[in-house]
Write a structure and sequence with these properties.
Blueprint (H helix, E strand, L loop, with lengths): L2 E6 L1 E2 L2 E2 L3 H9 L4 H13 L8 E7 L5 E6 L3 H9 L14 E3 L1 H11 L8 H15 L1 E3 L4 H9 L4 H11 L2
Helix pairs in contact: 4-5, 4-7, 5-6
């Protein structure tokens, strides 16, 4: 069972089908319209986040395929969400922005397939850890303080609700 990877063309972080892409789909035995619809559905999950790469993983024996959407690395993603070009020179002394806990949880859900976390709660803590290292506050509080609150169960309801989005 051989798998083939087809890169999906992007223009400005958005899906932009072109003739070469459609030819690649046809040579793999896939319907370009059906593939385009599946890509659009997959991209909706990531609305509000910049997409760096989309790939199709095609099983050549069955013609089944998966759409793999890739976001930038966590630090770059945080900067783009904040609308910044670069991080602080000294994260311990400078803050470059503030994000809501809801946005942190959304980012953890979006990056969950790429993160090596066993639970969404630990993925949220990974995002918060990156916020701490970059000088980003969460809800006006330092990220380290919010991490302690997550450990204490303060955001368990929000995280459990978000876990429903991860279920297939």
């Amino acid at each position: 069972m051989a798998k083939r990877i087809i890169n999906v063309p992007l223009q400005g972080g958005r899906f932009a089908p072109n003739p070469q892409f459609q030819d690649a789909l046809k040579s793999a035995g896939l319907d370009p319209n059906a593939v385009s619809q599946r890509i659009q559905e997959a991209v909706k999950r990531y609305s509000g986040f910049p997409i760096s790469k989309i790939e199709l993983e095609v099983d050549e024996s069955t013609r089944n395929f998966d759409v793999l959407v890739r976001l930038p690395p966590m630090g770059d993603l945080l900067l783009k969400v904040l609308g910044k070009d670069a991080g602080p020179h000294d994260a311990a002394k400078e803050t470059i922005g503030d994000l809501s806990m809801e946005k942190i949880v959304q980012m953890a859900v979006a990056k969950y397939p790429e993160l090596k976390s066993r639970s969404l709660k630990s993925a949220v803590k990974q995002v918060l850890s990156t916020c701490k290292a970059m000088g980003i506050t969460v809800g006006g509080k330092p990220a380290a303080e919010v991490m302690r609150e997550v450990d204490g169960g303060a955001y368990d309801d929000m995280i459990k609700k978000a876990e429903e989005q991860l279920a297939p």
